From TrEMBL:
Pfam families documented for this protein: Sigma70_r2, Sigma70_r4_2
UniProt similarity note: Belongs to the sigma-70 factor family. ECF subfamily.
Stretches assigned to the RNA polymerase sigma-70 region domain: 45-110
GO MF term set: DNA binding; sigma factor activity
Renumbered residue ranges of the record's region Disordered: 1-21
Protein's name in the database: RNA polymerase, sigma-24 subunit, ECF subfamily
Length: 208
């Protein structure tokens, strides 16, 4: 199965292979995948594979690792399509969320829990012009475990945009498109989330 998925991911003509499926909506594609229809999976790859791969690549920085993560995610979708619950969001968002989590887990496994993330705040346009980020000096010093522990304590919507930006390398516009929120809402969630994150980390003594 993984060998077949590798061909789908690498094949630039996958769109042509799944042409007859291009008019199907995501819900019907999931139904066909449950019926073991490989072409339905090929269409999912055609729609979202490149975006999911790009997300994994930004996190891992290695093409081979990113391909491995995406293959694992697609195998999971193929083997257990019922894991996707349409009530919790559309297929694209679910697929990217699973890819993001898998890539982070992959990174931890390769570098160990003591691996430090070099978070470059200046790399992303995440805050309004002129805003002085109160958390930059804190987050740059933190180990991954400390960050994850603090992130678990802030609201899920704020956690989501922070992870997509700093671990996933996504821009404000990309996050807005993925989550369905406006760019202004994404910036607000980012700002509030970072302020709460700083409060948590400072109170725990992580910045010392």
């Amino acid at each position: 199965m993984k060998r077949e998925l590798r061909k789908l991911i690498d094949n630039e003509d996958s769109a042509n292979q799944s042409n007859s499926y291009s008019d199907h909506d995501d819900e019907y594609l999931l139904y066909l995948i449950k019926e073991r229809d490989h072409q339905a999976l090929a269409e999912v790859v055609n729609r979202y594979g490149r975006l999911a791969y790009s997300l994994a690549l930004r996190i891992l920085g290695d093409q081979g690792w990113a391909e491995e993560v995406l293959q694992d995610v697609l195998v999971k979708l193929w083997q257990k399509p019922d894991m996707y619950d349409p009530k919790r969001g559309d297929l694209r968002r679910w697929l990217l969320s699973v890819t993001h989590n898998a890539a982070i887990d992959n990174l931890r496994g390769r570098h160990g829990s003591e691996q430090k993330y070099e978070v470059g705040f200046e790399k992303f346009d995440i805050l309004p012009d002129g805003y002085e980020d109160p958390s930059e000096d804190v987050v740059r010093k933190l180990q991954a475990e400390e960050v994850r522990g603090a992130l678990a304590l802030i609201p899920s919507e704020q956690k989501e945009v922070i992870e997509l930006a700093y671990y996933g390398g996504m821009t404000i516009s990309q996050i807005a498109k993925l989550t369905g929120a406006s760019t202004g809402t994404v910036k607000t969630r980012m700002r509030l989330g970072m302020m709460k994150l700083r409060q948590i980390l400072t109170s725990s003594g992580a910045s010392e």
